[in-house]
Design a protein that fits this description.
This protein is α+β, with helices and mostly antiparallel strands and 136 residues long. It has a single domain (2-135), classed as Pnp Oxidase, Chain A (Roll). It is 32% helix and 32% strand. It has four helices and seven strands, in the order αββββαββααβ. It has a seven-stranded antiparallel sheet, with helices on both faces. The longest helix has 14 residues, at 2-15. The termini are far apart. The mean pLDDT is 94.
Length: 136
């Protein structure tokens, strides 16, 4: 189950100041905590990211599934989120980008770091959203 997989990654991340092994070894991950749109509960997801100036950028790929990940729905309902990067925890505001040149530029930048995101885009008919996270 994805929940069990995420739980293991989250535990490893927190135990090792943001470092994880397995398929994510050598890549930067963050933990994104959103507020559940229906439940109001905190929901945490490990995500690959890149930096764009002061912003953090994540991709709502759901591994190329036909639907967006639940966390994107939560971000749209409440853009105030919490980021854990390494051993630091910071509040941030999320801005989803679903089309346009900025979305395309940031998606391409992520693909340069992690080419698997291009494969995810090829697997789905939806345009995979990019989410900018601005720490504050």
């Amino acid at each position: 189950m994805a929940g069990d997989w995420n739980t293991q990654i989250i535990e490893e991340f927190r135990a090792n100041q943001g470092k994880v092994g397995g398929p994510f070894a050598g890549h930067e991950l963050l933990l994104l905590t959103t507020t559940g749109a229906r439940s109001g509960l905190a929901r945490t997801n490990p995500l690959a990211f890149i930096r764009d100036g002061d912003d953090i950028v994540v991709i709502a790929s759901k591994a190329g599934a036909p639907t967006n990940p639940d966390w994107l729905h939560n971000v749209r309902a409440d853009p105030e989120v919490t980021l854990e990067i390494g051993s630091e925890t910071v509040p941030a505001t999320a801005t989803p980008l679903t089309d346009g040149p900025e979305r395309d530029r940031l998606f391409a930048a992520m693909v340069e770091v992690m080419p698997g995101f291009a494969e995810y885009q090829e697997k789905t008919d939806r345009i995979i959203p990019v989410v900018k996270l601005r720490p504050h």
